[in-house]
Amino acid sequence: MSQHELGESLAVTTQDIDIEMLPAMAAPTASTVNGTGSGKAEVGKPRLIITQMVLENFKSYAGRQVIGPFHR
What we know:
The protein is α+β, with helices and mostly antiparallel strands. The chain has helices at residues 3-10, 30-34, and strands at 53-58, 61-67.
């Protein structure tokens, strides 16, 4: 399949979507958003915790910029 054909097959316009046919989605609860819900957490799975970031030549900041530490 050529890239042109792929682009045509993926092209979607707003006229192609009937909003009434979309499934109704409930708003998340406050406990889910805040992370205090009773969701089942995977025990023993390590979490990535970013403590600081070191940026070099990031956007308009020339040189090395250290951001952080990030903690509560």
